[in-house]
Amino acid sequence: MPEAPANERPYTVRARGCIACGTENPFSLGLRPYRDGDKVVCELRIRREFRGYSNVAHGGTTCMVLDEIMGAAASVTLPETVVATVRLSVDYARPVRVEEPLRGEAWVVSHEGRDLTIEGRLLDEEGTLLARANGTFRTLSSERAKEFVTRSTRPEATSG
Fold this sequence. Notes:
Elements: E1 34-36, E2 39-44, H1 59-77, E3 83-92, E4 102-112, E5 115-124, E6 129-139, H2 142-153
Antiparallel strand pairs: 1-2, 2-4, 3-6, 4-5, 5-6
């Protein structure tokens, strides 16, 4: 089945201030993960500002991309539920080049109680594996989710 055009894709939840997907954060990577069958997919390019050595993305940036896409997989599996990352393990297979087309993919492996086990990977445009991850994401109670979201969306304090 061919992919839907970018303007017709059902993007997952995005947070205004998020460093990975934020619509109002000037430093955001601008990730736009979307559901594609049983997984979440995201096409992206990592900007030069997120590099470590030379033209290679910082390992923390690669981890952030995978964490975001894997969290999106949880959100499409359990709509209206907020999850938090409780464990994330990343294996780096090859350097992730900045300014190159990349594809991230993530899918839920299991769901037991409040915990989801999720796997993800980052590929270059030829489909070569650059990094893979697995992690545990925990659903938050409605009370905790409300506190979590309220705290993260509060305007920054200013002094003056």
